[in-house]
User: What shape does this take?
Amino acid sequence: MARPAGPDGHVDGHGHAPHVVPLLTYFLVFGALMLGTALTVWVAGQDFGAANTAVAMAIAVTKATLVVLFFMHVKYAERLTQLVVVVAFAFLALLILGVVNDYYSPNLEGKLRPAHLTRE
Assistant: This one.
């Protein structure tokens, strides 16, 4: 049988109160995301040469960070939750860097090169 909630609204009795985020914060983050979206559209029409992908990824990572911090409340979460999020993103970055490293590695010669793989 479940125990009744205490005066703080929690069963465990630790006294954790929910964090209330001011409405202005949500509007400011929303405005920043809309600005980021407009910037993304503008950047898509520009030619930055070899930096096209880097610029697009920088904008996307900035927007994703805003969403994770504010809309998913990670900014106000416990340290363990913040650590889990940071480790997850670090692992994602490691995987992306591995793929990029493999893609830009020199062409393999000899027996290791698959017959169907050709790069231009």
In short: The two ends are 67 Å apart (CA to CA). The mean pLDDT is 82. Helices lie at 23-44, 52-71, 79-103. Residues 2 and 10 are 12 Å apart (CA to CA).
